[in-house]
Write a structure and sequence with these properties.
Layout: E1 5-9, E2 18-22, H1 29-33, E3 45-49, H2 64-74, E4 79-84, H3 86-97, E5 102-108, H4 120-136, H5 141-149, H6 160-172, E6 193-198, H7 205-226, E7 229-233, H8 240-243, H9 245-266
Parallel strand pairs: 2-3, 2-4, 4-5, 5-6, 6-7
Antiparallel strand pairs: 1-3
Helix pairs in contact: 2-3, 4-7, 5-6
Length: 271
């Protein structure tokens, strides 16, 4: 058995495909993707808790390589991969390792900064990230929660024990923003691909300049290199699927329908 907790939202009608939703850091499956549950109307959706998050077992270190292999263990049928932030890096790796099982790929604000490390904005963000990690390693989970959410306890997702576990895991995870990703290997594959990023206009100025601008550049670079459609979601920053769920759900449905059309055409169903 895989060491993962997976919530399955089953479609009302049988299909040969499935969707896997992969969350980022400081969260877990159901907290991250609550706004995507309406998508289960016509798709089988697996909502994953990565190792050390949610109801999945603890791990000595959260690691995107291990996470990607865990996702491969769930890909027993054609799969639409959706990854946010750290989960976007995991989705990229899973797609590279088993391209024949991928029906579509959607990356939401992927934290794949190393892909665009030659851009000065991204290079500066990487340096800031390294300093932040070095400074945070001595923090407790509760202290790290305070850094992430400030003094607003209302913002900390429930149940709180899951939030504390997420902070504990985040403190020891392998930084995904330094991952050496073979993104160019995805370009030849013609399944539909989508990269989503926020427009960040409503974010705090320091958050936008320190994080947002680098993620916008990264999203654009990743989209170009894998041959994906790039879409910027108005009014959102790092969590478009939570801040603008209706818009993101519409885009995901379009992506999956395009994948259905492509499969139908390739098998002669479109004739």
């Amino acid at each position: 058995m895989l060491p993962l907790h997976v919530t399955t939202w089953d479609a009302s009608r049988a299909r040969d495909d499935q969707v896997i939703l992969i969350h980022g850091t400081m969260t877990w499956g159901l907290a991250a993707f609550a706004g995507q549950q309406p998508l289960a109307g016509h798709r089988r959706i697996l909502v994953v808790d990565r190792r050390g998050f949610g109801a999945s077992p603890d791990t000595e270190q959260s690691d995107y390589d291990v996470d990607a292999d865990d996702i491969l263990g769930l890909m027993d049928r054609p799969t639409h991969l959706v990854g946010h932030s750290y989960g976007g890096v995991v989705a990229l790796l899973a797609a590279v390792r088993r391209p024949a099982s991928v029906r579509s790929l959607a990356l939401i604000e992927p934290s794949a900064l190393a892909v665009a490390a030659d851009h000065p904005v991204v290079a500066a963000a990487l340096e800031n990230n390294r300093r932040h990690v070095a400074a945070s390693r001595s923090m407790s989970a509760e202290e790290y929660l305070s850094v992430a959410y400030g003094t607003d306890d209302q913002a900390v997702p429930e149940p709180r024990e899951f939030a504390v576990r997420a902070a504990e895991t985040a403190l020891r995870e392998r930084p995904c923003w330094e991952a050496d990703l073979p993104v160019d290997a995805l370009r030849p594959h013609d399944y539909p691909k989508l990269v989503l990023t926020g427009t960040w206009e409503n974010a705090r100025p320091d958050y936008r300049s320190g994080v947002g601008e680098a993620l916008i550049v990264t999203a654009s670079t990743v989209a170009r290199r894998i041959g994906a459609r790039l879409h910027r979601v108005p009014g959102a920053d790092h969590a478009p699927h939570q801040q603008r769920p209706d818009e993101v759900n519409r885009l995901l449905r379009q992506l999956w329908d395009a994948a259905d059309t492509a499969v139908s055409a390739s098998t002669g169903g479109g004739r």
